[in-house]
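Extended Data, panel c. Modelled sequence:
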Amino acid sequence: MLEIAENDILQSLERDNPWWAVRGGATPTAFAHTRAYFAQFRELALNWDIRRTLILMGPRRVGK
């Protein structure tokens, strides 16, 4: 069985969760970057005059 050092696990967790290092309650969204089509999608999603379904498609696990 592969043994992984505890230090390696902690480094990986800290790299994947940078908000853990910030004191004072930073949230994961504080480190999020703006998506390329967010503004356009938000405008369409909040427009009640559009009488059709709005679908956001894309690869899995990419932060849609």
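The mean pLDDT is 81. This feature is highlighted in the accompanying rendering.
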